[in-house]
Amino acid sequence: MPKLNLNSAHNGTAFSDIDTCDNVRSTLEPKFHQPSRKLCRSGSLTDKNIERRWQVLASMTDKDLLLDPFTQQHCHQYSHNIEHFIGTVNLPVGIAGPLRINGLFANDDYLVPLATTEAALVASYHRGSQLITASGGASAMLINEGVSRTPVFAFRSLSEAALFVSWVVTQYETFRTIAQSTTSHGKLKDINVNMEANHVYLVFEYLTGDASGQNMVTIATHKVFSYILEHSPVAPANAYLDGNLSGDKKANVYTLRSVRGKKVSAEVTIPASLINKYLHTTPENMVKFTQINTVGGLLSGSIGINAHYANALTALYIACGQDAACVAESAIGITRMEVTSNGDLYACVTLPNIMVGTVGGGTGLPTQKACLDILGLHGNGNAKALAEVAAGLCLSGELSIIGAFSADHFCRAHHKLARK
């Protein structure tokens, strides 16, 4: 196989190490021989299928590493969560806290489980949580909630699209009835129309109870979608269940002003003496750091301004059985810091896209349920509280990392905790 060096340049070309054109052509062209390894066709989780897969994988790694006794004992509980199952990946889980949240729904001192392989992460959130708790806790408020699905209909002309919209706006109550016939927990709370010439996007926004709700809104919207295709006075040239306006698993500007999942703000006022004690810096230094880094974020085209919401949310989501891919939209938000009139630090975060649930999905799996049990937030009635805890956790991480940069301790902490 030819050796490629994509970082070198020779006469304006990045492929100076390719042996010959024929070699690279033969390397990159399609191959139609049978795969050297084949898995069983069925993706279902049965003992027989697991054994068949391991007959293929046995020469590659130690089966006991992925299919340990605990996993074998509980594996059939995963049957609705994964296909082509071969085992589990063990992730270290740390605990941060206590994190005091004074919220509309979360009101307690929380010990927060975080699943990660990144050294220094749990230590940072632990420090930030202790600082918030020493300051009386973070106030947290769930401001709004809603999960959307956005079917799109393409017509041959603007006039056809207008005729379709004039019919759609008379059907809202019918759409609500149809959507809610598919779920006992969800509620279609709003329908909006967005036209782009002869394309029409319908924005269906739902309340999803204590579930994260993405499957719920997909099933409900699909039933309405089918009704529209059957009854519309004008047939679309093309129609799809989602037109990519929902922001599902993507960073996007729209939901920064709106909501996807749960929108939460959290704030705390911290005495300067505690900033010095826990973070070894001053409120003034931290505010100056955030001001300068806000400009850097604008220059980079960042959607929102924050230091590292993704660290907290990914570790929390994985530990607690959430859809980790939703961090793509959940990690959007705004962090602000100000020096108060008496020299203390005011810090706040707003996250408009926290996608969490306490029922359904992966929340009932053994270790994920155990992590939610540590928080005291498994089961019905707890999703709003989990969202407020998530926002408070992000606030704790913003304080800790901004304090570390302001005191020039960031590198030292990672050198101490992450180097072998």
Automatic annotation (TrEMBL):
- Could you tell me the EC number(s) of this protein? 1.1.1.34
Entry annotated with the keyword NADP: yes
Q: Which SUPFAM superfamilies match?
A: NAD-binding domain of HMG-CoA reductase (SSF55035), Substrate-binding domain of HMG-CoA reductase (SSF56542)
| Gene3D superfamilies xref list | 3-hydroxy-3-methylglutaryl-coenzyme A Reductase, Chain A, domain 2, Hydroxymethylglutaryl-CoA reductase, class I/II, NAD/NADP-binding domain
Mind telling me which Pfam families this protein's record contains?
A: HMG-CoA_red (PF00368)
A single GO BP annotation from the record? isoprenoid biosynthetic process
**What top-level branch of life does the organism fall under?**
Bacteria
User: Which InterPro entries does the annotation name?
Assistant: HMG_CoA_Rdtase, HMG_CoA_Rdtase_cat_sf, HMG_CoA_Rdtase_CS, HMG_CoA_Rdtase_eu_arc, HMG_CoA_Rdtase_NAD(P)-bd_sf, HMG_CoA_Rdtase_sub-bd_dom_sf
Q: Which family is this sequence assigned to? A: Belongs to the HMG-CoA reductase family.
PANTHER family from the entry?
3-HYDROXY-3-METHYLGLUTARYL-COENZYME A REDUCTASE
Which protein, by its recorded name, is this?
Answer: hydroxymethylglutaryl-CoA reductase (NADPH)
Organism this protein belongs to: Vibrio sinensis
User: What lineage does UniProt assign to this protein's organism?
Assistant: Bacteria, Pseudomonadati, Pseudomonadota, Gammaproteobacteria, Vibrionales
